[in-house]
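User: Fold this; tokens only.

Assistant: Input:
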Amino acid sequence: QVQLVESGGGWVQAGGSRRLSCAASGTIVGIKDMAWYYQSAGKVRELVAVIFAGGGTNYADSVKGRFTISRDLLKNTVYLQMNNLKPEDTGVYYCNADLIPAGGSRRAYWGQGTLVNVSS
């Protein structure tokens, strides 16, 4: 059974940094794109950053120059380095992976979410 497990959330002061991790576990044939989404209270979930299978990346305008997404192919893990955090970055961050499980079909999986709280 495939699972995505996030870690690294918590409290941080404005201007500080936080690094989120998301590890995919289970029997996985291959992982395509991996991404981080963000959801603040009362709002829809939105894309923060994506790293494609070929290594290219894309970011939401609001985080360009502050956040960096990366991945470790051997560990099936994606990271989100968040610098110069702002109070408006507060929310739950979800990991998403487009992958092929053993004996299954390619589809998107979600982590349980990790809360990042930025105080001013």
